[in-house]
Write a structure and sequence with these properties.
Blueprint (H helix, E strand, L loop, with lengths): L3 H4 L5 E2 L4 E4 L17 E6 L2 E6 L5 E4 L7 H9 L4 H28 L12 E2 L8 H9 L10 E2 L10 E8 L2 E9 L7 E4 L17 E5 L2 H7 L2 E2 L7 H8 L4 E4 L5 H4 L1 H7 L3 E3 L10 H8 L1 H10 L1 E2 L2 H14 L1
Helix pairs in contact: 5-9, 9-10
Amino acid sequence: MFDILTVVPGKKRLTQSGWYSFNAVCCHNKGHRRDIKGRGGLLIDGDNWRYHCFNCNFTCSFELGKQISELTRLLLQWCGMDDVTIGKFNLESLRKRDLIDIVTTKEKLSRIHFSEVELPNAELIDPSNDQHKTFIDYLSSRGLKHDEYPFMVSPNDAGRNSNRIIIPYTYKNKIVGYTSRYLDNRVPKFIKEQQTGYVFGYDFQKPKYEVCLVVEGIFDALSLNACALTHDTISDEQAMLLKSLRRKIIVVPDQDKTGLTICERALELGFHVSIPNWADDVKDANDAVVKYGKLPTLLSILQNATNSKIKIEMQRRKLVKRI
């Protein structure tokens, strides 16, 4: 980054308080009398600095990694810097921000640890096993094939556990949890063993992917090779994991009242949101895949993705009327 002192014209004097004083460049540009008493001041802290005129009270600042403000742009112009050079300076600052974010994210990720866990005593779904037909049929009803993921079942267990599909959670190819989907129409339908900050489907994401879809449910994620939160909010730890992918994040909320609550959080994190105009009987991404197919569902999500608060609010209002 450039040295701001080399840009400010005229003589500079370092005061005991740590300010550099010089004839202010702002006064006459604002219609006041030209400063000849050294009323301009710069306080520098590494690459960051703050300017204050003790005559006309013009103030601005610069912080590495942030967009140059209009006031700071004015100061640089008054110091004789052209727009092209200012633009390059601004771009370099934003590039530094990306580097700072990468380093910070790597440091935080290095502290993320999910302990390995043991799965319940179960067996992989086997189409040659008559006891597994019910589970295979259920997966088929959700638009999934039994061999698309290491689904496990325990038909020989007692009680509810004999009627469940076990979906392992992996992180960097290690088993770190699981969820059980019970097929007996009792509640809760899902019982999960999930560690804080975990995002299901993180291992699905490939380096070549430009977009990561984020959904709420496990079957939504399995339908689209997406990431699942398994609840209707995004924790700080989950946000950090998602941002570490360094790609466009599109949050696809369930189309019900609980799903609407996730939109503001997504925008707060700088993510996109997509609320496609699906049929009334389509409540989530998995329903959409079953009804429309995988490719049409993906296209509808991508076409409706936006980070505009106004557009998202309009989509939400349409959805509220349907609920």
